[in-house]
Amino acid sequence: MAKQRKIIHVDMDAFFASVEQRDHPEYKGKPLIVGGQPNSRGVVAACSYEARKYGIHSAMPCSRAYRLCSHALFVPPRFDAYREVSEQIRDIFWRYASEVEPLSLDEAYLDVTYTEAFNGSATLIAKAIKQDILDETNLTASAGVSYNKFLAKIASDMDKPNGLYVIRPEQGEAFVAELPVGKFHGVGPATETKMHNLGIHTGKDLREKSLTELTERFGKAGQYYYNIARAIDERPVRSQRIRKSLGKETTFAEDIHSIAELIAKLLDLGERVFESLDKQNLKARTVTVKVKYADFQQVTRAHSAEHIIKLTDLKKIIPLLLEKTEAGHKPVRLVGLSMSGFDLPVTEIIQPQLDLSLNDDF
Amino acid sequence: MQFTVSQDTLVRPLQLVCSIVERRATLPILSNVLLRVQGDQLSMTSTDMELEMIATLPVAVEEEGKTTVSARKLLDIVRALPGNATISVNANDGKAVVKAGKSRFSLATLSSDDFPDSEGANYIDEISLPQSALKSLLDETSFAMASQDVRYYLNGLLLERDDTTLRAVATDGHRLALGSLTTSTPVSEKNSVIVPRKAIIELGRLLNDSDDTVKMAFSNQQIKVELPDIHFTSKLIDGQFPNYERVLPLGGDKEVLADRDELKQALSRAAILSNDKHRSVRINLDTDQLKATVTNQEQESAEEEISVDYKGAPLEIAFNNAYLLDLLNAIPDNKVKLLFTDETSSALVTPADEKFERQYVVMPMRL
Where is each DNA polymerase III beta sliding clamp N-terminal domain found (chain B) (predicted)? Predict the structure, then answer.
């Protein structure tokens, strides 16, 4: 039998609205609608949880949202800001997952079957991802953990916002049986009505239908419904890109002035980055150091080597890169370190020469 | 300061002294050689702050004194003059004038007061031994030193003294070379130092195959080696050398006795098809037979077969061919003994008829 997969679905909570509330503290705690203006023909792109209480949801015409809650704040979307956060969270995903399949700016499937961190506990990995997202973007996400994409996606919706919900392999079928068909991903309102008319209200009802019956009624999708009613979903998590870099960063509680302290912080990050590199068997030739000053200005400095860079090399490289920044002169609020240049031919990566065990007694 | 000396007396000691001067010195004065005339002697000193070399030779002294001039320029001038030339050097007023026949050079000087002083050190247990013995010890081991390894303590040679044994050990993490010799004077307490790679290479150049005496002693921070006209000191590497005894394999049951020259020649020929990317040679052992195969990425192959003395089970194992050739070159004896365990464990190579004086350990490559 193939190894039981471990899939996480991560979904940012009220993404656009949360970014706006984060960047504009005055929006906090208020019904907020990101999208068109109330008098326009635009639709709601996203809304805060406070706005949802009024029955407002995304894709609703703004005029209607205005009628539901006239004191709501209407702000235009800032897609550049959302894309920036999106990149940040994707970087976080890559720290933990061997495959990352983004569904949109704020949502992705992660395959963590082969992740060794946290002894491979997908629940702890999901927790760590949520924590990293909170630490690095100041936003919350909800995560669903299960053994396929279908269940992981349902799970992420179970405990929103800031939720973490796990559907274990032995719970999968029972869980689906209880679920109203309207909650199934891939069952829209039209299909839902159609199913209700057939007396299909829950997963259990759906399961009782034969494959022939379902394909007759729903065409190709019938096979999919047949499978998901049994909590079967073999779709792999497909990365759309090959990992190009791997990095970590840290924001300080208090700005740092001392170069020595920054070097120490970066070496700590380096150790963690190399742990991840080792796990994924990646060898890098480029180190990039990112420095964000207290005034939020940010610079990156990179060093590329002819050969594979080892962890011990960072001791030499990091001070040289920091020298090229204003660190030490200006207070620093964040540093990051990433490794890239994984494109060495495989023959050079494999080191066929075996080593003497010199270090046994150190 | 003024002296006169013949070209052929000056050129070799000057060459030796200049060899440790860095091409790109961190301080201008380190590019210079210190010339000091006293009594009937000229002493020439160079340093890179780690190594210091002082050569002394008799000259015709006209005026005592000292100065420093560019080592490279002085050496180039002296080397370019004919062997029978008489060279005079006269330093005065910030200039050093070098004259020979109708040649005349005026060189800039830097004050000898700025030349770094060598630190005094408390040397203990000085030993005297023939130059040739020390030279062989270095030649037989130093090839295995690491170079620019981040494990800085491997970028040098371990010299260990224990009773009357002087042992040298080098390893780059893939192979290890160990050699030893017996000295006439026992040491008061077992001790060891790591001598930097550059110092070992310079020492190798300094020593010759004669039986002339060389004196050597260690302090906590330095090693000194004294030849009749050369005084050499080097700082040491401050670090912990790996415990080499643990690297020496014990349990090898596959023992091969081979003729060194025959094996070396076979491997050298096979190496013709090796390149930087494909350095490995595959060794196949069978009863009384050793086969060496090299293949490269162009699908070319070399096969060599030699007769050996071997009664063990068949074994296939691969090595970096250069590592094998290095150690075979270091063993002067005619017969070598190779001891294998399996294809992923280190092999031990020694001269066939001695037990512990020289031992070479080499890790295989993946097949």
Answer: 1-116
Contact status of B148 with chain A (Cβ, < 8 Å): no
Q: From the CA of A312, how many Å to the nearest CA of chain B?
A: 7
**pLDDT for position A168:** 93
Whether the Cβ atoms of residue A306 and residue A348 lie closer than 8 Å to each other = no
Sequential DSSP letters for B172-222? -SSEEEEEEEE-SS--SS-EEEEEEHHHHHHHHHH--SS--EEEEEE-SSE
**Contact list, A362 vs chain B (CB under 8 Å):** 240, 242
CATH code for the part of the protein at A245-343: 3.30.1490.100
Q: What is the pLDDT of residues B153-204, one digit of tens each?
A: 999 999 999 988 999 999 999 999 999 998 888 888 888 999 999 999 999 9
**A52, A73 Cβ separation under 8 angstroms:** no
| Cα gap B102→A236, rounded to integer Å | 88
Q: From 3.40.50.300, 1.20.1740.10, 3.30.1360.120, 1.10.150.20, which CATH number describes the A172-229 domain?
A: 1.10.150.20
Considering the domain delimited by A1-166, tell me its CATH architecture: 2-Layer Sandwich (3.30)
Lowest mean pLDDT among A22-26, A152-156, B254-258, B363-367: B363-367
- Asked whether residue B295 falls in the same domain as residue B209, the answer is no
Of B223, B246, B269, which residue sits at a domain end?
B246
Cross-chain Cβ contact B174/A356 below 8 Å: yes
Q: Which of A99, A107, A136, A249 is catalytic?
A: A107
The CATH number for B232's domain is 3.10.150.10
Letter string b/e over residues B286-305, b meaning 16 or more CB atoms within 10 A of that residue's CB: eeeebebbbbbeeeeebebe
Residues of A in contact with B245 (CB under 8 A): none
- Residue B131 domain boundaries: 125-246
Quick check: B246 contacting A, CB < 8 Å? Answer: yes
pLDDT reading at A219 higher than 90? no
Residues B305 and B287: beta-carbon distance below 8 Å: no
Active site residue A107: yes
Q: Say whether both B84 and B190 belong to one domain.
A: no
In a domain? residue B119? no
Q: How many of the other CB atoms lie within 10 Å of CB of B355?
A: 9
Residue that finishes a domain, picked among B60, B88, B114: B114
Q: How far apart are CA B321 and CA B305, in angstroms?
A: 15
B136 and B81 part of one domain: no
Domain membership flag for residue B120: no
What is the pTM for the complete model shown? 0.56
CA dist list (Å): B361 to A199, B167, B177, B228, B338? 78, 15, 6, 36, 10
The beta-strand segments (E) located in chain A are 7-12, 32-35, 44-47, 73-75, 99-104, 107-111, 141-146, 164-166, 245-256, 286-293, 298-304, 332-340
In terms of CA atoms, which chain B residue is nearest residue A314?
A: B150
Predicted local confidence at residue A348, as pLDDT: 40
Q: Does B274 touch chain A (CB under 8 A)?
A: no
* B311 reaches A (C-beta below 8 A): no
Average pLDDT of the residues in A11-39: 91
Question: Which residues in chain B are contacts of A353 at CB distance < 8 A?
Answer: 174, 320, 363, 365
Q: What average pLDDT does range A63-86 have in this prediction? A: 89
Cα three-residue angle B199-B204-B208, rounded to 5 degrees: 145
Q: Tens of pLDDT along A300-347? A: 898 887 678 888 889 888 988 998 899 988 999 999 999 988 765 433
Please give the order of strands across the beta sheet that includes A286-293: A245-256, A332-340, A286-293, A298-304
- The predicted model gives A160-175 an average pLDDT of 92
A356:B246 CB<8 A:
no
Is A159 in CB contact (< 8 Å) with chain B? no
Query: Which residue, chain included where needed, has tokens 């999968």?
Result: A172
Residue ranges per structural domain of chain A: 1-166, 172-229, 245-343
